[in-house]
Specification:
Strand content: 25-35%
Distance between the termini: 104 Å
Helix content: 25-40%
Number of helices: 3
């Protein structure tokens, strides 16, 4: 006698409406949690990429400053001429330039804050001190607009201090690596000892942490 292994259709049990609603709710919660996790990962990746780009930009900026400070011209080449000038949001440096198969020359390099951007400009390289004086005057008057490059954006402030071997202090407006001097009618009065290094502090936009870097003058 044939015996069926299948239960009658009326005895088969499926999912009830309540069970389906519970399952859909659980799947919805899992989907929301998964979306939030994915969203946090994407946001973290965007923030990390931005931080890495910012860090790389600051490394390149400070590396360029270090190179300029390391090649700063001394009194043997300049005499009584200043080799750097610092005031609010600006740094001027007279540096040596070496090129293959060419004699060493001098040029004026300027760092300036303009509309939240840290700009670097450089004059032509020259061996003529009179021409160098013209370049220096143009840079001091902010009329040298050629060869200007934006190194970093989003910079709110730049402050500069000098190191005399014992302490950091604010840099007077006109300085030389061996004598920081103040001009008085008819004479030049030394106001302090030799400047051996500079400290540059940058305040980035909407960031509380200050970026600080120290450079030795003449240390290539």
């Amino acid at each position: 006698m044939f015996k069926s292994n299948f239960a009658p259709l009326h005895s088969r049990r499926g999912f009830t409406l309540v069970e389906l609603l519970v399952a859909i709710t659980i799947l919805g919660v899992i989907a929301v949690l998964g979306w939030r996790g994915l969203d946090s990962i994407v946001r973290a990746r965007v923030a990390l990429t931005s931080d890495l780009e910012q860090t790389r930009g600051m490394q390149l900026t400070f590396a360029q400053m270090q190179s300029d400070c390391g090649l700063i011209a001394d009194e043997v080449l300049l005499g009584d001429r200043p080799n750097f000038l610092s005031d609010q949001g600006r740094l001027l440096i007279v540096r040596k330039v070496y090129a293959e198969n060419q004699p060493s020359r001098l040029q004026v390099v300027a760092y300036r804050l303009r509309q939240g951007g840290l700009m670097r400009s450089e004059s032509d390289a020259t061996r003529d001190l009179d021409q160098l004086d013209q370049f220096w005057q143009a840079a001091s008057a902010d009329t040298d607009n050629s060869n200007s490059v934006t190194l970093k954006t989003g910079v709110d402030a730049m402050t500069i201090k000098s190191w005399d071997g014992t302490a950091w202090s604010m840099v007077p407006p006109a300085s030389t690596a061996n004598n920081v001097v103040a001009t008085v009618p008819g004479m030049v009065v030394p106001v302090r000892a030799a400047v051996k290094g500079l400290q540059v502090t940058l305040q980035l936009h909407e960031q509380q942490v200050l970026l600080v870097k120290a450079f030795l003058l003449g240390a290539v």
